[in-house]
Amino acid sequence: MSEIIIGIDLGTTNSEVAIVENGTVTVIADGEGRKMLPSFVGIGENGEILVGEPARNQYVLYPERTIKSIKRHMGEDSHVVMAGKHFSPQEISAVILKQLKAVAEGYANKPVHKAVITVPAYFSDAQRQATREAGEIAGLEVVRIINEPTAAALAYEARHEGRKRILVYDLGGGTFDVSVVSIEDGVVEVLSSHGNNKLGGDDFDAKIVQHIVSHIHEQHGIDIGESRQVMARVNRAAESAKRTLSDQPFARIDEEYLIEKEGTPVHLSMELSRYEYEAMIAEYVDETLEAVHIALSGANLTASDIDEILLVGGSTRTPVVGERLFEKFGIEPLRNIDPDLCVAMGAGIQAGMIAGESVSAVLVDVTPYTYGTNAIGDIGDGDFYPFKYVPIIRKNSPLPVSKTEAFYTAVDGQEAVEVKVFQGEDEDALNNIEIGEFLVKGLRNVPAGNVITIKLELDLNGILHVSAREKETGLEKSITINNAIGRFQDGKMDEAKARVSALFGQAAGHPMETQADSEADGHHAQVKARALIEKAQTLLEKASDEDREDMIDFIEQIKDGLAGKDFDAVEAATNRLADILYYLDA
Ligand code: AMP
Description:
Substrate Binding Domain Of Dnak, Chain:A, Domain 2, globular, four-stranded mixed beta sheet, alpha+beta, six-stranded mixed beta sheet, Nucleotidyltransferase, domain 5, Substrate Binding Domain Of DNAk, Chain A, domain 1
């Protein structure tokens, strides 16, 4: 067997080590099953050296004995002070590398002497040199330093033939980088890179922390900013809420006995919605998109030149990040490889290649389709449309996956909602494939805006479990769709589309793909018109005699237009009917 070379992602927040065995790459877990080593180094109470989790745990209480984010100082001619002693940045990094080396040796059951280490694309020669020195201090010959976006591209595309241009969007805990890379037959070149090494998930946490601090101030008149212990708890609670909001529309933040006020304990208990959270971090996300723009112009490219977007770094699990990139590029970012482990895997693959191993692509089970439901919304023509598609589980998500979204009832006193489940990508849900539906009845009699959460869970066997829940009461109804993934392969898609079209009055057996655009428009006009007619019928009684007559007239005109496929007439009558409804509904 060839000599072992390990691949290391020496990160600002976390570090990992990967190895290639029998042609496949693995990120190695430590004795306790953890693959990510927090990039913290400390001196414990008894003078012992601490690396990773234990060092991170003591950071808030003993910052003078703990070093974090040493990567920010690599290449500087400076030192840091830990428990009164001076250390160079290389020495602190070497402690982390030594720990990773030991984890790899424990796993391989033999000594390891060589490594590939990743660095940000923007690292200068001095910073790269310092990284090599850190390796040497740790007893590792650094056989190659590679750029982080290069490693990410290798993890995804090591086996790709031909040329691709890839955008690597890397949002970690404390840093943000975006690079444009070109890959051709396994050779990766960084075309441009841009970023902000002071922007990341920690800033997102800080926004939630601020929100909690002002909440406590408003509710109890206490300023908790003074107490380190209390702030440490609030920080942890904020980060945990942030993670919850990546999969759920609401997060509860509960911390009992957070602080005392005049001898009485104060409990923290609040709820944060994803909607509020996204507003808090919008400025940061905007900033990353500006950097994306700069990186593209640096490579003399535009959005349409990009073939793939890779998401790297834990903070890219925040859904709005992927959504904004999708809006800008029109392609679904790839998220199949764990964004925290992707760079380490690429480093491992590079190391394996240098060691002469033949490395196969990283295999993960992902969903090849997007699944979602429909809601009333605008699909680009400024009108309300009841079948706007709302994706819930996105294409390329690793399996198993569970995602929840919030919806709101549209009408006062609405006692039931019909949940339809679709598979597909089109923003018009009716152009996707309906794979299930069910009715939730017995909702509370309350004004419009009653929150219904819809949860989609897809497992490795392609079984999709869908549940809808009235948030306030917990009233729930669910269905299970077997074989959700396999269902529409082998050309069955066209048949299914034809069936759905037929339901809406089009000729059966007439696949959507072969229809002229005007017919597709007609399909849309029909659905809109039918929704409007339903709405008009509920408002007839409320209308004055004159309006009622006009409404009935327009309804007839719409029906005639639909029957004769005169979509211009349908549209004219629909618009006039919509005008009347607008005033009646106001
Ligand atoms: P990294 O530096 O790549 O290890 O990324 C760490 C950052 O990712 C931290 O700010 C984490 O809080 C953040 N993170 C990890 N998991 C999630 C998640 N599920 N949703 C949002 N952020 C996350």
